[in-house]
Write a structure and sequence with these properties.
mainly alpha, globular
Length: 88
């Protein structure tokens, strides 16, 4: 059951991050889920040592959603940086 919640929370976090980073038109639901789940890993890797806060997307919590969102925004910022440099 935890993986279903992880997919839903990851999809929501990825979708919110794509809206903030203005990439919503180029991403579908599948990429939103991937970005949200990978963003959760990135967010936990950064927030754990820096802030002492951890959140899981396998159990729905506001902390887990925020950490996944912040990690997804960081991931999309990195992707945008490399895509901009490649296009030039």
């Amino acid at each position: 059951m935890g993986w279903i919640i992880a997919l839903i929370v990851g999809g929501v976090a990825g979708w919110l991050a794509s809206m903030v980073m203005k990439r919503d038109a180029s991403m579908g639901i599948f990429l939103n889920i991937i970005v949200g789940c990978v963003g959760s890993v990135i967010g936990n890797a950064l927030s754990g040592p820096l802030l002492g806060v951890r959140g899981s997307v396998q159990q729905f919590s506001l902390t887990g959603l925020i950490i996944a969102f912040v990690g997804a925004v960081i991931l999309l910022a990195i992707v945008n940086f490399f895509q901009r440099n490649r296009a030039r």
